[in-house]
Design goal:
GO cellular component, one term: extracellular region
Protein name: Gamma-interferon-inducible lysosomal thiol reductase
Strand order of the largest sheet: 2-1-5-6
Number of helices: 12
GO molecular function, one term: oxidoreductase activity, acting on a sulfur group of donors, disulfide as acceptor
Subcellular location: Secreted
Strand content: 5-15%
Largest sheet: 4 strands, mixed
Structural class: alpha+beta
InterPro entries: Interferon-induced_GILT, Thioredoxin-like_sf
Helix content: 55-70%
Order of helices and strands: HEHHEEEHHHHHEEHHHH
Radius of gyration: 21 Å
Length: 241
Amino acid sequence: MASFISLLSTVLLLSPLCFTTSLVSASNKVSVSLYYEALCPYCSSFIVNNLANIFQNGLISIIDLHLVPYGNAMVTSDGSIICQHGTGECLLNAIEACAIKVWPDVQQHFPFIQCVEKSVEAREENGWKSCFQATGLSSDPIVNCYNSGYGQQLEFQYAQETNSLQPPHQFVPWVLVNGKPILEDYENLEHYVCKAYKGALPKVCKGQRLTISQETTANNGDKKNMHKPAICLLSWIILWL
């Protein structure tokens, strides 16, 4: 009995320590925010071909990922939202906003959003509907969220968040690492995350810094790559001329 009480006392003493360590670990995560719109080809490409990598290589374990599907949309004077790539984009922005709300765990909503953006890349107009089956997630809560108008409410919240950015976003995809925009170099997100992380670096970070730094230099010399993100903003400006 005495040994049991001693063991129990030890567990109780260690529990706060374990809990505190968990909290510190969570606070050490690197904040990554992605401001994007569903039908922007550069956003789709980044989500499908770059952002997905952090889930595959385990870097997500040190990242607090925040997705904001609104992008270059605008709220009109009559209180409606118009999207850069039309009503289809407004639909998918709201669908993805609903997914984030319904499944707040990034390990759940990201695979769904990635699937939707894959269908965008493939130019499958209604391909996103197959993503429920593909991810094993129920369509009911998303359909209810959208049909009830709640998806639209979420978009208004994202509009306020996006329009409050300082400095303001210049194009999409617009990526922040610990609150700072990484501008045209968003494809090198992993480099910025590894550099910003203050804890013990995961394997994916080790030995990458020199390689990624070299890639960054190469990309900065590629004018096509430098202009690529601005297309989603430029086409919106042309649309309104």
